[in-house]
Design brief:
The chain is an alpha+beta fold. The chain has helices at 30-43, 47-60, 73-84, 93-106, 125-128, and strands at residues 3-8, 17-22, 113-116, 119-122, 133-135, 144-146.
Length: 155
Amino acid sequence: IPLVSVECTDEEGGPPLSVDISFQSQSHHGLLAAAIVRELTSILPTLAPLILCLKHFLSVHKMSKAYTGGLGSYVLTLIVASFLVHQPPGVSVGRLLLDFLHFFGRAPEIQRFRFGLAGVGGIPPHEAMFDPLCVEDPLQVRAVRKRLRQNDSCR
């Protein structure tokens, strides 16, 4: 997808605001993806605060840009939503954040999991042999595979 990245700063020296702009093409699913994210945030009220915390965490560790080996917002949203659908109602955002970080920081062989809105499950060995993280995109027939760079500082 053609993309333009813009970083804006204010005159008073506040933190920069980064914006990625994509252009219409046959493979562009931005409007549908935005609708899915809106729907997920309306169904899962703790999704938005968790995403904001995790996006900041990833940004601080220079892991928030998909094109540099990090994790983009849409994939992060799908991963967190797949985590939240398995949590009991009424759990605080703080507890959910800690449980999420514990799961991803301590789960043995995380590369053997497939994350999707239908649940977290195992990946057949032939699909998982090269990809450390597999996230099912509701807009794609096949799973989206996301390669993350190895970074021990986030463990």
